[in-house]
TrEMBL record:
Lineage of source species: Bacteria, Pseudomonadati, Bacteroidota, Sphingobacteriia, Sphingobacteriales
Source species of the chain: Sphingobacterium paramultivorum
Domain of life of the source: Bacteria
Protein name: DKNYY domain-containing protein
Signal peptide positions on this chain: 1-24
InterPro entries assigned: DKNYY
Keywords of the record: Signal
Amino acid sequence: MMTKVPFKTMLVLLLLTTATQAICANIAQYNRTALFLQDHLGDGYSKIGSRVYYRGKEIPNANAGSFQFLGSGYAKDTWKVYFRGAIITDASPSTFQFLGDGYASDAWKVYFYGKPLSNATASSFKILGNGYSKDPWKAYYLGKEINGANASSFENLGRGYAKDNWSSYYRGEKNDKFAGPNTQPLGGQYTKDNWSVFYKNQKVEEASASTFEYLDDGYAKDAWNLFYRGVKVEGGSPNSFKLIGNGYAADPWVVYYQGVKVKGASPSTFKALGGGYAKDSWAVFYRGQELKGAGASTFEYLDNGYAQDTYTKFYRGEKLD
């Protein structure tokens, strides 16, 4: 038996339901508006109205009107300087500037990722690149003083290497393996002096410094040998060697993938397709291994690891059902 609900009760329930729906709609609209009005500044900093946030957490007492993101975690407003949302004590906002490579300075101090460098001269501090920096008296790597370095002649060579008039350095440490003034960065982590060749600061055995040159894609050669990432490629012919791309290379007799011979590949018709795929007139290869069942004549690389021939699709060298 159904119980009759008085009309007034029904009317009140209806009004309450309508009001609730309206409130929820207003809240949703407010959230959408707040999201729309949010000003993303970079590196996790954002502003919503008069509030400033770092990675979703409000920065207490930050002044939104004057707040600005500088780079690499640094920011400031009229009264304070911040690194990754935390106040840098005693930093001067009016003179504070981001220098690059994690370094910043104000009129009195130099900072590396928010930490002050002791005894660094802010007015003459220079960024050299790859983590290296200096002032007129000291050289630094990743914010740490390089003991014994001569700042006036110190220079960044790239790939972690640096030198002054008397010594060479690798990733901020003095490098006794070769003489600083003769250091030559070649690219691809290769370096040489007048007598030896190095890959990632390790001597490349059997390499001739006088004829050594970096090619690309990890490959290098001298007058007698080929090398891949510092390792000799056995049997390679440097005089007729050519790069194909995507880790592939060839001489008139052999195709290589990352310095390893590709079995059964024909150098005269071999070409790289992209994504690790390659082919010659008869076979298809993926990262140096023959891709069994693939038709070379119709095989093509698509994108993002996908490839196909007339009958089959492949993903990263595997057939797709």
